[in-house]
Amino acid sequence: MKTAVKARRELPRKIAVPTDFSPGSTSAMACALALAGTDKKKVTAVHAVDPFEYNFGPKDLRYLKKKKVWARAQEAMSDWLKANKFTGCAVSVIEGEAGPAIAQFIDQKSIDLAVLGTSARRHAARLLLGSVAEEIFRKAHCLVLVLGPKMRARRRQQLNRLAFATALEPHSLAALARLSQLARKFDAKISVVRAVSPNIRSRTERIRIAGETKLKIEASVDPGLRKRIQKIHVEFGHPLKIITGFASRSKADAIVMGIRSGGEWDRATTHIPWAFAHRVIANAKCPVLTIRG
Question: Cβ atoms within 10 A of the Cβ of 46, count?
Fold first, then answer.
């Protein structure tokens, strides 16, 4: 008689946490360390120093300013780690504008997962973990887990129940291959949710759309992911309310969204204050995991 063996949970090998030492980045660091389990060394706290402060003036003065700014940044990093009792992790202080510099760091270091905290504010200066978070997850090639301001604190952070939100766009369906890898790593169960315009009132048309959704999802996933999908839910109404509501009802550990890969216009599009992914992050009570499609 054969004994069933539960799938081994394979954690990401390298996790990066961009920080500006705010409460949002503190929550992100706690989450990353929880996901890392006992191997805290795989987590790197990374802070970007903007060279704007010391790029002007006489050469000697620029050097002194740079030395002072870097010393202040390194001291702030050390104080932040000590104040929150974050031990065993790696630390990196880099130079550059936050979004592009951190995205480059993530790719150069072959990071598997970046964990970001964000305030997701409507109207505020673009701080590191404000709308710049959106810029990072559009530019970085790894998975990005974003913790919004309404996320409920949890004793243990896990990614065992995932809600995949899709409108069946090509970039969303393209993300399913990486979702399959993630689901294997965390031995996760998947629920799929699609929000459709409430203006479609015909019962026949609604039935057709529900059937189309199931067929397209099943045609786009590999056999392994197909076995992990427990439900494909189609609902007609406001997309934001449907997605966040479905995630809450299904007790999802994270909402998963496929994000369009950035091109020459990506820097401009991330400045749009109410890009849909940003709105989901701002309202979700669980983290939002973004995958570039």
Answer: 22
Taking the C-alpha atoms of residue 58 and residue 65, their distance in angstroms, rounded to an integer, is: 11
pLDDT higher than threshold 90 for residue 154: no
Query: Is it the case that residue 252 has pLDDT exceeding 80?
Result: yes
Q: Which two tokens stand for residue 248?
A: 């809450």
Taking only the tens place, the pLDDT of each residue in 120-145 is 454 433 333 455 666 676 677 889 89
**Cβ neighbours of residue 121 under 8 Å, at least 6 residues apart?**
130, 131
* CATH superfamily, with its number, for domain 161-292: HUPs (3.40.50.620)
Mean pLDDT of 149-165: 82
pTM for the full predicted model: 0.85
Name the CATH superfamily housing domain 15-147: HUPs (3.40.50.620)
Cα angle value 27/29/31 (rounded, 5°):
70
**Domain edges within the chain:** 15-147, 161-292
Closest CA to 212 of 261, 163, 153, 167: 167
pLDDT of residue 292: 82
| Fold match between domain 15-147 and domain 161-292 | yes
Confidence at residue 124, expressed as pLDDT on a 0 to 100 scale: 37
